Amino acid sequence: MAAIRLGDTAPNFTAQSTEGSINFHDWLGEKWGILFSHPADYTPVCTTELGTVAKYKDEFEKRNVKVVALSVDGLDSHNGWVKDINETQNTTVNFPLIADEDRKVAELYDMIHPNSDDKMTVRSVFVIDPDKKVKLTLTYPASTGRNFDELLRVIDSLQLTAYHKVATPANWNNGDPCVIAPSITNEQIPDMFPKGHKEIKPYLRLTPQPNLD
Ligand code: BEZ
Is residue 178 annotated as a catalytic residue, yes or no? Predict the structure, then answer.
């Protein structure tokens, strides 16, 4: 399977998970999705990652995002490990973990990088929009836990682009000025961005974040 690229339709699959069988596209429904892999159950960095994701449930819900994790471990292993995550991270895992023992999904999404490790999945992230298009891919090594605040920040940016036709500049954070997309003409700006705008260069036009009061 070739690497999945931005704009591709996220491949569909049916797989067993800690919340029963999942048909990925049906399970996503009309929502945004995050599919993320972790190298192995009962490992320290993964334990902190999944605990963190559980604690961010409200943040994902606010953004209309469903989250699903995956590794090539089996269902019994996942279920046992979830108890450890709940105990050690002071949370309750509230999203499904796919048990991809036959590596079907890992191969479909190119999550095993054999020159890094031929048995475990790397730390992949796929953000998928409600049209099932892949909007972001990330690959982290096993030894580096991901920054889930950054993932929320990217989802905010993607949703601003999808719903308000703005992009976000370097190191943007919620509340900062946004960049008017180059596809928007100056004539369209007053109607589309009634809060006003500042033209620094003809190609660099800023506007207050459109979805805030
Ligand atoms: C971890 O989750 O701690 C981990 C997993 C695989 C390799 C290294 C670290």
Answer: no
Q: How far is CA 52 from CA 21, 94, 169, 200, in A?
A: 24, 11, 27, 39
Mean pLDDT of 130-159: 97
Domains of the chain, with CATH numbers? 14-146 (3.40.30.10), 164-207 (3.30.1020.10)
Give one DSSP letter per residue of 113-145, joined into a string. -TTT-SSS--EEEEEE-TTSBEEEEEEE-TTS-
Q: How many C-beta neighbours within 10 Å does residue 101 have?
A: 15
> What mean pLDDT value characterizes the chain?
97
142 touches ligand 1 (CB under 6 Å): yes
Q: Does the beta carbon of 143 lie inside 6 Å of ligand 1?
A: yes
pLDDT at 213: 81
Does pLDDT of 1 surpass 90? no
Identity (one letter) of the amino acid at 5?
R
Say what the pLDDT of residue 161 is.
96
11 Cα–ligand 1 center, Å = 26
For residue 17, the SS3 value is: strand
For the chain, helix, strand, coil in percent to 5 are 30, 25, 45
| Position in ligand 1 atom list of the atom nearest CA 46 | 2
The mean per-residue pLDDT over the stretch 22-29 comes to: 98
Å from CA of 96 to ligand 1 middle: 20
The percent of residues above 70 in pLDDT, for the chain, comes to 100
